[in-house]
Amino acid sequence: MEVVLEVKNCNVDIQKERILRDISFHVKRNEIMALVGHNGAGKSTLMKTMIGSREKITGTLSIAGNDQDAQYKSYKRNFTYIPEEPLLFNELTVYHHFKLYQKSYSVPEDVFESRVQTYTQGFELKDKLDEYPEALSKGMRQKVQTICALIPDVPVLFIDEPFMGLDVYAGRFLEEELIRKKVQGACIVLTTHQLEKVSELANRYVMLVEGEVASSGDVSEFHELERRST
Ligand SMILES: Nc1ncnc2c1ncn2[C@@H]1O[C@H](COP(=O)(O)OP(=O)(O)OP(=O)(O)O)[C@@H](O)[C@H]1O
């Protein structure tokens, strides 16, 4: 299977302190990879490094062969990201947020309209298209952010703590949609404190302990490791 996301020997410092040490792993097409670890293990820092908002000291990152440093524009066009906290523009309506993503990722008009229809129905946001973020609840803002990231078909989808703030219906809808994207060839990287919460969804895991990869493999192997250590 084809490797889509490749992380090689990444070291990241924050205020002169080494937060991530020599991180290497890869994710292939049709894989959902869970980044797991305790509070402070480095999951968010690694996510920020992968989306390019935190600089690495050394190492390389690539998506579909595009190097993060040498080909940043094409690297960026090959992923979308759902942050833990929604980051929306006060001056744009819900629909205009979707349009922004359509333009940035060159999504054809018919695909765009049909996805907006499907997702606003699935996430129960149909009557909110003309609203501005300040008129939405936190969960609704999270749904808007989620839809934005789902509209384009990109090789990699990064999600920081999926299902956070989503109600049970929206969570189920998102889960089904992520599986659909995976089957169609996407690779999905998500962070979580508890692998059990995503064990139905993720097939691979990378476990961080104090900024290092402590173990990685199939989710079924993780459960076996846990069973043997308890
Ligand atoms: N902006 C920052 N300034 C200083 N230290 C930071 C900063 N961001 C993260 N750190 C430190 O980096 C380490 C890793 O933090 P990170 O947020 O990546 O962990 P995490 O695994 O995502 O944790 P959580 O599960 O609590 O979200 C922690 O020791 C944290 O204190």
TrEMBL record:
Quote the Pfam families the UniProt record gives: ABC_tran
Q: Where is the ABC transporter domain?
A: 5-230
Q: Has keyword Cell inner membrane?
A: no
Q: Which domain of life is it from?
A: Bacteria
The record's GO molecular-function terms, alphabetically, read: ATP binding; ATP hydrolysis activity
Q: Cite the SMART domains for this sequence.
A: AAA
The record's section on CDD domains has: ABC_DR_subfamily_A (cd03230)
Question: Which key words are in the record?
Answer: ATP-binding, Nucleotide-binding, Transport
* Protein's recorded name: ATP-binding cassette domain-containing protein
